[in-house]
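The instructor's notes for this session suggest beginning with a concrete chain rather than abstract definitions. Hand out the sequence below and ask the class to guess, before any prediction is shown, which regions might be ordered.
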Amino acid sequence: MEESQYWYCQEIDTRYGAVKRARGCHLYTSKGRRLTDMYQESGRAILGWGASRAMTEFKNIVNRGITGSFPTDYSARLEKAVKKLLPEYTHIRWYSSLESARRAISFFFNLSPEVQIGEQPQLDAVINTHPEHVQDLTFDNWLYVMGIPRWRPWLESARIAGERDIPSFVMEQNSRLQEAVVVVPPLPWTRTYYLVAFSDTGNRKIVPSDMLPPPVLAAMTRGIYDLIAELPCRSERDWKLYDSIICKYWKRRGPYLLPLVSPEQYKDFFRHCLDCGLLISPYYRTPSIIPYGADTGNFTELKKNPFVFI
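After discussion, reveal the predicted structure:
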């Protein structure tokens, strides 16, 4: 029987019971346990649980009765917000599922089968795992294997470690404007929605956005503006405070953490961290995130009970 992608929920529930409250970078369970959230819904909760004003915006639009499929100005507002976040991009679309976003991107690049959505080269675990394969990739094959990059906040300023042998064409592509990037809304309750920013298309056509409810469009707009306001408030000095602890287990790129443990041992590492009160990413190829607003005390149990590498 294939394991559910949400297998980690059972791990949490078995140890600590259901999550009853979430605030900032912490989850509070029914058994009185506080967990430090380093998964953050794969980055959708990177602003913190309850920190964004998006839910208030969502409720306001619902209370005004603007919930139908009629035209509103919320689409234009969302486009304006994303262009302010990523001013290099000229066309913004949104899609209601990962499959819909992949189809649109594949159509834009005239690729078949559907292109993957991956990480920027700084974060792609495939580079660490199979560097000999990366050397032989053409750019088109890079799109298939690594995927169209997902834009992540605070990653552009992250220092790329020199110990990894990344091909020059990959670094060149990473250093200049991508023709398309995926942006996930910084809202933990919108895990099926994807924003895609396209550069000047020339003669290429872009698949129209999916129809989304106006309250969702308004909430995503508010979330993007909240992210823009937060960008200058976090920097390298906030993340390096934890290096003495986390660098034993992860490579850090800005606030993002790449596991040093092997893929085969990763689930054991996840469970060990959970026993230490840390909810890290349950997926090997999805980076964990430095919990902004935490302190070094959140890592005390991990420091006292180190994980043993095989």
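Then share the key points. The CA atoms of residues 47 and 186 lie 7 Å apart. The chain is about 35% helix and 15% strand.
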